[in-house]
Amino acid sequence: MSTPTPSATSTTVTPGGIPARLADDTTQGKTTIAASVVQKIAGIAAREISGVHSMGGGVSRAFGAIRERIPGGGTGASNIAGVQVEVGEKQAAVDLDLVVEYGASITELARAVRRNVITAVERMTGLEVIEVNIAVNDIHLPSEDDGTDDVVPTQPSRVE
What we know:
The chain is α+β, with helices and mostly antiparallel strands. The protein has 3 helices and 7 strands, in the order βββαβαββαβ. The chain has a single domain, classed as Alpha-Beta Plaits (2-Layer Sandwich). Strands 4, 5, 6 and 7 form a 4-stranded mixed β-sheet that branches. It has a 3-stranded antiparallel β-sheet with strand order 1-2-3.
């Protein structure tokens, strides 16, 4: 008995309106995995690679830093800076925006990130990762380690 293979863009929607993928459909029930789970796995796997300084472009990093300062603002799938996913029933595609450490070989770093993301997502979800697109948006220089991290400049408080 053969089943048709859905395209990478087809998604199942959970009752809460959250896109999910059909991970397992048996006579004993269904298992779905939210796209936010795939997004989080991909982000963690990318950050595990030495030479990745941070994720996201300058604007998304700045908004992320602001969100983290707001109580309850640092949670949720949309808050994973620099990681976008498209999840179907059997496949996923991942787009990553990276800031790399100065001196790292970008081509070797991209290969290692791609390999780690594919391995982690496929192992944990059972999805076939069809592509991992990587955009390097910035280089982090060692001289930038003064604590400001190019995110949001903080001004001294006028009141005590």
